[in-house]
Specification:
The protein is α/β, with parallel strands linked by helices. The chain has helices spanning 49-68, 71-87, 89-100, 104-128, 160-173, 188-199, 214-222, 236-246, 271-279, 299-313, 334-349, 379-382, 398-406, 421-430, 463-470, and strands at 5-8, 11-14, 17-19, 22-24, 29-33, 40-45, 134-136, 139-147, 150-154, 177-181, 207-209, 229-233, 253-256, 262-265, 294-298, 353-356, 369-372, 389-395, 410-411, 413-417, 435-438, 453-454, 457-458, 471-478. Strand 14, helix 9 (271-279) and strand 15 (294-298) form a beta-alpha-beta unit.
Length: 487
Amino acid sequence: MTEHTLTVAGVAVDTRHWIGGERVASADTFTDVSPIDGTDLGEIARGGPAEAAAAVAAAKAAFPGWAATPRAERARILHAVADGVEKRIEELAIVETTDNGALLRSHRRGVMPRVAHNFRFFADWLLTLDHDDFETRGHTNHVSWDPAGPCVLITPWNAPLMLATWKVAPALAAGDTVVLKPAEWSPLTASLLADIAAEAGLPAGVLNVVQGYGAEIGDALTSHPDVRRISFTGSVPTARRIAASAAPQLTPLSLELGGKSPLLVFADADLDLAVDLAVEQYDNAGQVCLAATRILVEEPVAEEFTRRFVDKATRLRQGDPRDEATDIGPTIHPRQLAKIDGFVQRALAAGARAVIGGHPRGGQYYAPTLLTDVAQDSEIVQEEVFGPVLTLQTFTDEDQAVRLANDTRFGLAATLATGDPERAERVSAQLVAGTVWINCFFVRDLQAPFGGSRHSGVGREGGTWSFDFYCDLKNTVTAPKGWKDHG
């Protein structure tokens, strides 16, 4: 291991920033720690305003050339990036599992292949992006998607590389240049992505990666006058700060924020399916923004549902996420564990009952928890915990189910379990959510719009919606007459 390189399971990771096609060190560093066992992984470059300015300058300098690159060539390079990801799936998987504690088997089989797919999808979508010309009183209207400029992309720690490339891929496909700021609790795979992109032939300065702690570098990025787009996934308080920072420049924002999503289980549902959907909400130790953490069950089946849920949930194996048999790994950081336990203990003190769990298990592991006897206006029902903590409430009819489901400040997603297609259509139409799943969960097609309502976000990304955000849409209107004869 050199001064600026750490090794994770035999994989070398450069700990410096990637700016303008070069590795750049910082005077200060921060320590990256594995949530699995508290191992000190190494020191990461800790950027600030100087590094932010250098990264934006590099992105600005590279923008004209990348914007002018023909679509087919941009697509070819993005497919080359996907090829590089696929060649290194095992390396990326073990590094990310070590860094953020998510299951290794999930990274190998689902997450890292999805990373490659993110690049392939937007590369291919770019080549089909078009709008038929249309006429207005004999005038021709032609719509085009013009690259907007340098983008700042700020990404979370719960699915670091997948969520980073969900933003990076469409931004690059659109012809924009990028400054990526990964979360400080899971910084490593973003550095590997920089290596992969360079090897694929992405020109210097088109993708820049800067590491650092929150506002130390974030404010300098989001307030920069040369930044044309900001996309952020994370918490509501941080989004408010980003919006305030971007406001003087009127920089367009895409914000994918928190959730407190419901799972509605009706008496006519397949209960085994409903239980499977409910237990699935413990995925990634509950650190999933889309998780349906509020289980709402129709009264006639509530007792049987709870019995089956407890039977299945208590058989989940919690432990080292590198073990193939593990179902639930650790929480990301001691601060997050303390936050989760604080929510649970306050709920218990207020009268909630822990059907299962309700306590830490040592290290950064928190027992899968189900709380009942919770009031609709209680903190545990209204606020995002972001851990393996679910609540269970009952309802008597559709109207009450919808009222309970919509009665938070969030609106990211909702899940229904019902055997009645007419009920599914009726109820889903009334739910405030960016995504509604019926008898399924976490099925996401990249061509569909994704985002949240209310405090769950601003804007939509995915398919053409991504290009609408990362581009300046232009309508060119041509008169039917008036051309001079240049013959």
